[in-house]
Design a protein that fits this description.
Layout (H helix, E strand, L loop, with lengths): L1 H21 L14 E2 L5 H4 L28 E15 L4 E19 L2 E23 L3 E23 L4 E22 L6 E25 L2 E10 L2 E16 L5 E19 L2 E11 L6 E12 L13 H4 L11 E10 L1 H4 L8 H4 L1 E15 L2 E19 L7 E15 L7 E15 L9
Antiparallel strand pairs: 1-4, 2-3, 2-17, 3-4, 4-5, 5-6, 6-7, 7-8, 7-9, 8-11, 9-10, 11-12, 12-13, 13-14, 14-15, 15-16, 16-17
Length: about 450
C-alpha cells in the first residue's frame, strides 16, 4: 500500500505544475468556440495509434478512454508523455507559423486482482489560445478594431476500475474530475482617439465530476483474437463560476494600459458548463504471443460520435459591438471521427525469419483519422484529418528476485494533420507534431518463496 500511496501522491503533486501548462498551450483561433479544442484522451502509446482505444486491450499500457481495459493490466504501470507541435496557419492572403508543446499527461494503473485493475491519471480535456482582429463601423463612433484574446482550458483527472465480469467480457467505469479556467477578453479599439477603448473580460472557473463507462468483448478464434469495444459518456453539467467585467481604458504609448470607468461587473456568479455526450465503438484484431504480454501485430478500427450541439453557445456580452463574433456560430451538427491503426513487432510477426536485431524487437505503428468536427462557420463545415508513424523502443528489463519483472518502453512518433479550410475567409491549420512518452512496468506484490 505504501507504493500505491506514493504514486497517487505524485499525481496530486504534479497537478499544480501541470495546470499551469495546460492553461497556456493553445494557439488555434478555432478554440474560440465551446470549451476550446478537445484534446486526445490518450497517453503516447494510444495517441500514436490514432486514438483507436475502444477495443484496445493491453496488459502493459494505460488506456483512460476505455476503463474496461484496466481489468487486463498485469503489471504496475506508469505512463508519462508530452508533445511539441508546429502549426502553419493560413488564410487566402497571409500565413504564419506558431509552436506549442510540453508535458501533457501522466497516469498509473495496477492490478487489484487477476480479474480487476485500477487506474488514475491527469491530462488536458481542452485547450484555448487565440488572438484575432476584425474590423467594423458604428454609426455613432465610426471605425473600430475588435480584438479577441483567449487562453486557458480545462483539465481532467480520472480514477477508474475495470473488471472481468464473465470469461470474455470486461466492464469498467471512470470517475473524471474536470477543473481549470478559461479567460476570454474582447477589446473594442476606436480609430477616433476621442473615444476610449472598451474591454469585456470574462473568466470561467470549473470544477466538478463526470462519468464514463465501457465494455469489451474478447472473441478468441484460434491464434487470432478479436476484441469489440464500446465506450459511453453521458452529457454532464459541470459546476462553474463566471466573472464578467466591462470597462473603458487608455492605451499608453509604452504599451501599458490605464483602466478608467467600469460599465458592468458580475463576479463569481454560479453556473455550469456542459460536457457533451459521446459514444465510441471499435474493433481490434491481433495475434497474441504465448507467454508474452504483447501481440505480434494488431489492427484497429474505431467510430466516435460527440453530440457537440449540446454545447452552450458562446456569448461575449450585451453591448452590440462586443457581442459580434468573428465568424457565425457554432456547432451545427454532431462531431464524428473515424480512426484506424496498425502495429507490428517484426521478430514476433515473422518468427520463421529468425530476426535477432534490435530493430526487429521494436514495435512499429501507423494510424490515420478523419473527423467532422461539428463546427460550421460561414456555412462551411470544419473538418480535420491526421496521420502518424511511431515506434515503441524496448529499454530492457531487470529482476531483483525470481518472478519479478521490470521493463520500460520509449514511445517516439511524428504526426501530421490539417484542421479547417481557407474557404469563405476561414483559416486553414496544417501542423506537424512530435509525440514522446515512456511506459514503465513493474511487477509489485511478488511474495518470496524462500527467505
Amino acid at each position: 500500500m505504501n507504493k500505491i500511496n506514493r504514486v497517487l501522491a505524485l499525481i496530486l503533486l504534479c497537478s499544480g505544475a501541470y495546470t499551469t501548462y495546460a492553461q497556456s498551450g493553445g494557439v488555434s483561433p478555432y478554440s474560440f468556440y465551446g470549451h476550446g479544442l478537445a484534446q486526445p484522451n490518450a497517453f503516447a502509446f494510444h495517441q500514436l495509434l490514432g486514438g483507436t482505444q475502444a477495443a484496445a486491450q493491453s496488459n502493459l499500457y494505460v488506456n483512460p478512454a476505455q476503463p474496461a481495459s484496466y481489468a487486463h493490466i498485469r503489471y504496475t504501470t506508469l505512463d508519462l508523455g508530452g508533445t511539441y507541435q508546429g502549426i502553419h496557419q493560413e488564410t487566402q492572403s497571409a500565413g504564419l507559423w506558431n509552436t506549442t508543446g510540453g508535458f501533457r499527461n501522466m497516469g498509473v494503473a495496477f492490478p487489484l486482482k487477476k480479474w480487476m485493475g485500477f487506474s488514475a491519471g491527469i491530462m488536458p480535456y481542452s485547450l484555448a489560445g487565440y488572438d484575432m482582429l476584425t474590423n467594423g463601423t458604428d454609426v455613432d463612433f465610426g471605425d473600430y478594431t475588435r480584438q479577441y484574446k483567449g487562453k486557458g482550458g480545462y483539465n481532467k483527472a480520472h480514477f477508474g476500475i475495470g473488471l472481468t465480469a464473465l470469461k470474455y467480457l470486461s466492464l469498467g467505469f471512470n470517475a473524471n474530475y474536470i477543473f481549470g479556467s478559461l479567460d476570454q477578453n474582447t477589446n473594442l479599439i476606436f480609430l477616433n482617439n476621442q473615444y476610449n477603448s472598451v474591454r469585456l473580460s470574462e473568466r470561467t472557473l470549473a470544477s466538478d465530476w463526470m462519468w464514463d463507462a465501457g465494455a469489451q468483448l474478447r472473441i478468441p478464434t484460434g491464434s487470432i483474437q478479436t476484441v469489440i469495444g464500446l465506450t459511453m459518456r453521458d452529457g454532464a453539467s459541470i459546476q462553474s463560476s463566471f466573472s464578467d467585467v466591462s470597462y473603458t481604458y487608455i492605451q499608453n504609448g509604452s504599451g501599458s494600459e490605464t483602466p478608467l470607468d467600469t460599465g458592468m461587473a458580475a463576479l463569481n456568479q454560479p453556473g455550469y458548463i456542459y460536457v457533451p455526450s459521446q459514444m465510441s465503438v471499435g474493433v481490434e484484431i491481433s495475434k497474441p504471443v504465448k507467454d508474452l504480454p504483447i501481440s505480434a501485430w494488431t489492427v484497429g478500427f474505431q467510430y466516435q460520435v460527440t453530440d457537440q450541439m449540446e454545447l452552450l453557445p458562446f456569448s461575449t456580452g450585451t453591448l452590440p459591438w462586443l457581442s459580434s463574433e468573428p465568424w457565425t456560430p457554432t456547432y451545427a451538427e454532431s462531431g464524428q471521427r473515424y480512426s484506424m491503426s496498425a502495429s507490428m513487432i517484426p521478430s514476433l510477426a515473422l518468427p520463421g525469419r529468425r530476426l535477432k536485431s534490435y530493430g526487429a524487437e521494436v514495435a512499429y505503428r501507423a494510424s490515420f483519422q478523419f473527423e467532422n468536427t461539428g463546427l460550421v462557420l460561414n456555412s462551411t463545415p470544419i473538418r480535420a484529418w491526421q496521420c502518424g508513424l511511431g515506434v515503441g523502443l524496448p529499454l530492457g528489463g531487470r529482476a531483483i528476485m525470481p518472478g519479478d519483472v521490470k521493463f520500460a518502453t520509449l514511445h517516439i512518433g511524428a504526426q501530421v494533420g490539417n484542421y479547417g479550410t481557407k474557404q469563405n475567409n476561414l483559416i486553414n491549420e496544417f501542423y506537424t507534431q512530435a509525440v514522446v512518452g515512456v511506459t514503465l512496468n513493474d511487477q509489485w506484490f511478488v511474495k518470496f518463496k524462500y527467505r
